[in-house]
Each structure stands twice: as structure tokens, then as C-alpha cells.
Amino acid sequence: MTSYTDKLGKVDGKASVSVVIPCYCCSETINRTLASVAEQTMLPYEVLLIEDASPDQGKTREALHRLVDQYGDIFAVKLILMGVNGGAASARNAGWTIATQPYIAFLDSDDAWHPQKIECQYKYMQAYPDVVLCGHTYRILRASEKYSREKYTSVLYTATARAIRPLNLLLSNPFVTPSVMVKSDIPFRFMPGKRYTDDHLLWMEIALAGLKVVKLPTPLALIDKALYGEGGLSSHMWAMEKGELHNYWHLHKTGRIGLPMVMGLMTFSLAKYMRRIVIMGTRRVSAWTRQRNKEA
User: Which residue of 26, 98, 212, 258 has the lowest C-beta tally within 10 Å?
Assistant: First the structure.
């Protein structure tokens, strides 16, 4: 980390939330992302933009400097400039380090939020202070789809949530990162430098420590791509699989799960990976067949 700039806005009526957004080659998507934060029915206290040494001739940094000026009168905006590219996990940790609020909400630079995301999630965590990590469901928002607050139906705050037990988290990742809000004072962070499935590792460590994790049933995150096999990190399926296997072995080495458990989880993970390969292959064959039929 080399430097940061900030512009403080009004603070009355804000949620005690720091929004952490890792930014890498995102000059074409970050405007939509920040617009969804500015349109929240309950604004966060601050937004932390972590520019992760994008190799795009300064386009991302220029876009982020403009957004600091554009939104600085709405909430506090800080721009952190990383000296070297460390990946999303390290960028999120850098934002977490300077966050000033008791809650952290994560958002990616190509995704967006439902206008009532912070209001619903923050109210829930305020009402249930024993909850350390709260996530929710999501829907797909394509890159070509312009963000508009008016498009999204109003959702009511509800106390209904499903407890996520450690075994549930070990078997699969129930959260996309932009759905998660955590208490900022927990003694866990993303594994520095880990570029695949770093979020899942953190969620598992939190749950295995006996801390309470829940999931709200409302789709408050708007994700630009499917979870695997399409764009971004999710397109690197084998790298993601290796990341998941590494997670299980790390949990074993740190004494959180035993050897029989880790062997069972790794076998189950590899079976899921093979199923995904079959699904992706079937999709490609179907697409090829449709294209051939059109050309015939």
C-alpha cells in the first residue's frame, strides 16, 4: 500500500458500515457499482476503494479519482492505491485495516446492490448482535444491463434468516462475497495473496470458531456473472478447484478439522468439480449444435 486520499461527506443518519471494494481494471464497471451504493435507502458511513495496481495505463485510477469527487458529498470516500497487485483478498484486507466502522460490507467492482441492501442487512445485524457474519441471496445483473434504482421492487426488513452451520459451509460456499456483512473486530482476515476461493476460506474459519453465521433469503446482491464457468475468476475452474482443496488442507493443518474429515471433503470437492466439467461440456455441445442448425 502506497497512499490514500479521502473526501469526507455528511455523517448524520448513516449506517455504521464501511464498504470495501477491491478495484482492478474496472474503469468500465465501477460507475455502476458506486451508483448502487449511492442509491441505498440507508447510506453507509464510508466507502473504501482499493486500487490494486491495475495495468491499464491509469484508467482505473483516473475513474476512481473522479468517483471520489463525485460521491464525496454523499458519504466518506477513501481511495487506497496499492503499490503492487496482490489480488482481491489482499485488497480487501487493506480496506479492512483502515475501516473505521463496526461493520464491513464487501462489494466487487463489477457488481451492484439492491437499493435496500444496507438497510435490511444492517438492521438485522443490529437486532441480532450475536450474528458475526450475515449473507443473503443474489440475482444476475448482466454487464450490458444499466443499474436503475427504480427497477427493483421494494423489500421489507424481515427477521427471518437461516443459520449456516459449520458443516454446511464445509460442503459448499453459500455466499457470494458482495452479499456478506461482517463485524469488523473479528480476529480473522482473508488469506493474503490467495487469489481463488479466499472468501470461502474466511467464512469457514469464522464458522469453525463457533461464531454465528446466517443467511437472509432476500436477493440483495446483483452479480455480473454466474458462479463458475463464466467470466472473471469463476472461469478458471481448475484453479478454483485447487483453491478449494487448499482451503481444506489449510483447515486441517491449523487444527480446525481432522484428517478423515479433510479426506472426505476433498473427495466430495473433486466429485463436484467433475460434475461441473460435465455440465460445462454439455452446454458447449448444445451451443455448437444450435449454431450448426442455424447455419444449415
Answer: 258
